[in-house]
Amino acid sequence: MQDAPRPKSHDSTRGTLHAFQRRGEVIKPAELIEVRGGEKITLAARRIYNQLLSNAFGPEMAAEGREHRISFSELRGNHTSNDRVTESILSLMQTVVRVRMSDGSTRNVHLLGPTDVEKFGPGIATMLTYELHPKLLPILRDSQIFARLEMQILHGFSTKYGMALYEIIAKRIGLKHIFYNDFETEELRDYLGVPEGKLGPFAALRRKAIEPAVAEVNALAPFSCRVDVVETKGRKITKLRLSWWMKTIEERKLQWEAQQDKQRDLFEPEPPCLGIFDPS
């Protein structure tokens, strides 16, 4: 079973940018999830980019020349310094990723356009004004598929591989009758953001990237997943299968209890118990 390139169960008759984004949620166009060339983006930069997308989200998000504003205090979280935020912003401005367009073609595009920093007092940054890159706007305008990401869950990840895997599954979790997707090994490596030349042997990739990512998703997300080998050529592993399923109510309760002492702000005050699909 193969995942359709543009699964219709995620389609919106008015497009991604007209979807309703709830508080604490990021609606992320699918085209910005499975990208290649983002291996240099750190975990902090990935989290900040999601915050920028959430802040800018709406029907006018793809309007040319549209500026968006967000405070540095929102972007830095519990950190007292703006240094990491500044480094992440510069990294996003300089990063060029390869995005698959709806017609199957590929576009090389910067993730972020021009930015301005407003300061209050000598050297104290308070507000960021930013634009999305002009070449990115048509992609956002035409997007019909998206993932709903929970900001609190995004803040729970300690590895960029875990966050990337969470987004990959969130893009597909609403599909009916599709519970796995096969990826070429090199393809999944790129989507997770593994640096070029790193973790070359599959054993290293599995131990350092795949297994930690699966463990984090299973600990933080409302769904579980696994990655299995489904194709080899000689001694080379060429294809992997990513499977996912929603947690049961009991599993969600146990998850909620296990996370309380680690991150009290990660989950709702009471364990969620409605709308959970049990595949068993």
Automatic annotation (TrEMBL):
GO molecular function: DNA-directed DNA polymerase activity
Ranges annotated as spanning the membrane: none
Record-annotated Initiator Rep protein WH1 domain positions: 26-169
Keywords associated with the record: Plasmid
GO biological process: DNA replication initiation
Tree of life domain: Bacteria
Similarity field: Belongs to the initiator RepB protein family.
Protein's name in the database: Replication protein RepB
Organism from which the protein derives: Paracoccus jeotgali
Lineage: Bacteria, Pseudomonadati, Pseudomonadota, Alphaproteobacteria, Rhodobacterales
